[in-house]
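Researcher: Structure prediction, please.
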Amino acid sequence: MDFQKTQKTLRKYGYTTKYFETKDEAATYLENTIVGKSVGFGDSNTLMTMNLYDRLRGSNTVFDPQQAIDNASFLEIAKKSLTTEIYITSVNAIAETGEMVNIDGTGNRIAGSLFGHDKVYFVIGKNKFEATLEKAMWRAKNIAAPQNAKRIGVKTPCAIKGDRCYDCKSPERICNGTIIYQRKMSNVETEIIIINELLGL
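Model: Predicted structure follows.
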C-alpha cells in the first residue's frame, strides 16, 4: 500500500488527510482537535476499537448509535447524529485511486457523511485499502458486509456462512444502499484519517 500516493490523490480530490502509525496516536489527535462541539458517530467498529466515544465525550456532546440499548433508542440517537457540527465514521473500503465505498442498511451512516455538518472525518485502517475501485467494491460486499451482519446478529446467508455476499432477499438484509465517494462533497469540509493498523471490519 502506497499511503503517500493515496493521500496525494485524496488531496487532489479536495480532502484533507492525516496519517498515523497507531490508533492511539489518531485518537489523541482527534481528542485534542475536537473540543466543545456536538459530535455524531456513524456506526463503526473502528471508532469503537479506538474508544473514541469515551475519549471525546468529556469535552463534547457525543451521539453514538452504538450506545443504543434497543432499536427505538438507536433511531433516536442516529437522528441526533445527523444534526451535529462534527460527524465521524469510517468506510467499508477505500481504493488507492481515491474512491471510498460504504454499504448501509438503515442509511444513517451514509446520510451523515454527505451533508449538514461543519466537518466530517473518515477514520480508516490499512485493512480497508484496495488497489482499485473494483476491488474496493468487492471488499465492501464480500468481506465488510458479511462481517458486519454477523457482528450485529442478523440471520442473513452472509452472516451465517460468513464467506461472501449472497444478494439475499432477507428482511434483515443490511446491504440496502451503496455509495461511492468519488470526490469530496462540495459543501462539507472533510478529513481522512489513515491509520497503519488493522481496524474495523
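Model: The first helix runs from residue 3 to 12.
Researcher: Thanks, that helps.
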